[in-house]
Recover the amino acids of this structure.
């Protein structure tokens, strides 16, 4: 497990729709790109998160 996780938030109409966690930025970007093609009305944001904030 890495010390940094990547959070990808899907937002629709200003509300959080889905939140996914990834081990690498590339995985998060790949997921967001595929979802943009299927769900063009959603906004995606990708952010680096310290893994210690997720798990104890």
């Amino acid at each position: 497990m890495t010390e940094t996780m990547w959070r990808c938030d899907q937002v629709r109409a200003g509300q959080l729709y889905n939140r996914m966690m990834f081990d690498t930025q590339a995985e998060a970007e790949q997921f967001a790109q595929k979802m943009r093609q299927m769900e063009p009305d959603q906004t995606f944001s990708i952010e680096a998160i310290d893994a210690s904030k997720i798990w104890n």
